[in-house]
Amino acid sequence: MALSMKASTNSPKPNFLIGENYHLSLKQSMEDLLAETHKKTPNFSGFIDKFHSLMQAKLDPPLESIWVYTALSFRSRNFEKGDPLNRLSIINDLFQLVSSCSSPCNSSKSIALLAPIVFEVYKLVVEVLGKDSRKVNIRIKSLVEVIIGYISMCCCKGFSEESENIDMDLVIPVEDLVSIWIDRNVNLQSFLPLVSSEICEMISERGFNVNYLAGVVMVEAFLLKLCLDLRIGIEGIVLEKELKSWAVASISSFHNFYFFEMLTRMLLQPALPVTALVGPEDGNLLKNILYDAVILVEYTFLKSKTVHLSNEHVKGIAMTRLVVTLEAIELFRKNRDKKRATCYTSAFANSHLHSQITKWISTLISSDEKAGGISGSSPKALIKRLLKLEKQGIKLFSDSILKYHAKLLVGDSKEVDEQSVTKVEEKKLEDDEPLFSLDDREDEKNEAMTAAYVAAARSMRLINDNSREKRKGSEGEEKEKIKYFKYDLSSKSKAAKDKVSVSGSDSGASDDDMSSDSEVDNPLV
User: Fold this and answer.
1) How far is CA 221 from CA 40, 250, 412, 429, in A?
2) Residue 276: pLDDT above 70?
3) How many CA atoms, within 13 angstroms, populate the side-chain half-sphere of residue 300?
4) Positions of E strands within 271-399
5) For 365-376, how does the pLDDT look when each residue is reduced to its tens digit (9 = 90+)?
6) What's 179's DSSP letter?
7) How far is residue 473's CA from residue 467's CA, in Å, rounded to a whole number?
8) Considering the domain boundaries, does residue 9 fall inside one?
């Protein structure tokens, strides 16, 4: 029996849940619920009606009201038992319930509410690891694709417009919300297993609001889809190219700063958390795909003049990208993949990020230094310059962890001929060929695809393998066109294998920081 919204039998009077009364009632209900979770044999039956009333009393209900109502409705089902396909069906029911309850909500809230669904999908993926489960993996992948489509639809609402004058803070700490799904003694990362502990710590320090939670959910769904593709996809370079194209198109479709910042930040880790799902070899392949998607592509939303983030936050994202770029270059130099390192260096030299950082530095240095020009413009040279400014008392790095990564790269990286690097940077790529380019004329087609995803999200029925392949073929015609740089970055990557691996503040940014029109631009112009 599918989960569905029920009519509350003990709904308070409509005028009771208004203004301050509403917030007091929500806070008290949350406190009572959390107290119940501490009991040896908790009884949540009386809370379903209470939170249903709180959810229905607002046009745009607080995240907590929907979170608790859907959680308690889900817990009433015996979802821990049964075969994987039965559990997948229940998870799909939960997705339908959450998407229905959150339909009037803003984008960030609608996406953040998917966190428990992604968590349950992850648990199911881990459960079927090592088993003869290709059919189950295909069904799981179908659900994940619909979830990602739903996220894309939510993103179309426009984060920058809706976030103005909206309180995105949580009523209670996120750890308390998580305790409704897992044991209170388990840490936050156990509920967000597809992102690193560093990400959880960073967000907790900044204040874990709805925007950050939504960004985490997007990263998790994004990575989960790529992992499932690697586990059940065809072997070889073709799959790698398809995954790169999909990753670029998805980042462009999401156009979300919080998602992009966390995805980029995860590349600073030696290994991605999802490596346990695909194995070390495919884990490295996945990281290379993400390097390409983050470094080789210019995304318009990163230069938009309607950014709803503070200038400091925008600069923090730029600094993270700079450090990740240098780390990738040094990694491939160490691995003797000079062509790939050169490609990343050239892409950076001709990118908006490069001009953004150099302009930023020029506003901080003295007039005498400006007259002499900035010495060196490689990622390494710029990071050295930024660290020098930090020593002069100018705070540039958003946090100590990022600063540590920057220092480590500059101090331990193999010395290279700066002049030869500069020559590579200053040289335009042959014929200004774009590393990636998306045809803006595909935007209308993408909107049509999003509409199709919405319909699927509302009435999804898990489909069989044959119909899924047929649908995949028809959708292929609608995907954005992506053009690759002449150097094939996949040439030295090991092929992905068809296997199941062992477990293992809202001021806009300045004009200097932003500009452009198309969703993904030629990074060399």
Assistant:
1) 34, 11, 35, 34
2) yes
3) 15
4) 298-299
5) 765 555 445 556
6) T
7) 10
8) no
- CB within 8 Å of 329: residues ≥ 6 apart: 341, 344, 345, 379
Report pLDDT digits (tens) over 377-432: 899 999 998 998 888 888 888 788 889 999 999 884 444 444 344 444 444 444 44
Task: For residues 42 and 36, give the distance between their C-alpha atoms in angstroms, rounded to a whole number.
Answer: 5
Instruction: Confirm if 235 and 290 have CB atoms less than 8 A apart.
Output: no
> How many structural domains does the chain have?
1
Does the structure show a pLDDT above 60 at 162?
no
Q: What local confidence, expressed as pLDDT, does residue 369 receive?
A: 56
User: For residue 468, what are its two tokens?
Assistant: 């899924």
93 Cβ neighbours under 8 A, 6+ residues apart: 2, 3, 77
pLDDT recorded at residue 291: 97
In angstroms, the Cα distances linking 329 to 34, 181, 292, 325, 383 are 48, 41, 11, 6, 13
- The pLDDT tens digits for 232-256 are 876 667 888 999 999 999 999 999 9
The tokens describing 441, both together, are: 């004329």
5 lies in some domain = no
Residue 415, number of CB atoms within 10 A of its CB: 6
Q: What is the mean pLDDT of the chain?
A: 76
How far apart, in whole angstroms, are the C-alpha atoms of residue 380 and residue 386?
Answer: 10
Is residue 484 situated within a structural domain? yes
pLDDT at residue 367, as a whole number: 53
Least confident of 64-73, 94-103, 216-225, 515-524: 515-524
CA nearest neighbour of 414 among 333, 346, 499, 355: 333
Task: Round to the nearest angstrom and report the end-to-end CA distance of the chain.
Answer: 56
Nearest CA to 209 out of 64, 51, 361 is that of 64
Determine the structural domain holding residue 265 and report its residue range: 14-521
From CA 242, how far away is CA 346, in angstroms rounded? Answer: 23
Q: In this structure, what token pair is assigned to residue 82?
A: 């049964």
Q: Say if 6 falls within a structural domain.
A: no
Tokens of 473: 């073929």
Q: What's the gap between Cα 446 and its chain centre?
A: 19
Residue appearing with tokens 């490295």 = 284
Which two three-digit tokens encode residue 47? 């809370």
Q: Quick one: tokens of 275?
A: 């490596």
Burial group, residue 164, by CB count within 10 angstroms (0-12, 13-18, 19+): exposed
Dihedral of alpha carbons 265, 270, 275, 280, sign: positive
